[in-house]
Amino acid sequence: MENPPLKSLYQHLILEHYRRPRNKAELPDRTVEVHMANPVCGDEIVLQLAIEGDEIRSARFAGQGCSISQASVSMMTVLLEGRKLTDADGLAARFTQMMHGDEAAAGDRALGDLRALQGVSKFPVRIKCALLGFDALLEALKQSGHTGVTSDGGDEPEGTP
Amino acid sequence: MILEAPAIARATIATPVLDPAVLRRDFPILDQEVNGRALVYLDNAATTQKPDSVLAVLESFYRRDNANVHRGIHELSRRATVAYEDARVRVARFIGAADSAEVIFTRGTTESINLMAWSWGLDVLREGDEILLTEMEHHSNVVPWQLVARRTGATLRWLEIDEHGLLNLEALPKLLNHRTRLVSLTHVSNVLGTVNPVADIVRTVRECSDALVLIDGAQAVPHLPVDVRALGCDAYAFSGHKMCGPTGIGALWARRELLDSMPPFQGGGEMISVVEREGSTWADLPHKFEAGTPNIAGAIGLGAAVDYLERVGMAAIGRHEQELLTYALDRLSEVTGFKGLGPDQVAQRSGVISFTLGDAHPHDISTILDSQGVAVRAGHHCAQLVMRRLGLPATTRASFYFYNTTEDVDRMVAALQVVREIFG
Question: Which residues are CB-contacts of B169 (< 8 A; sequence separation ≥ 6)?
Answer without folding.
Answer: B159, B197, B200, B201, B204
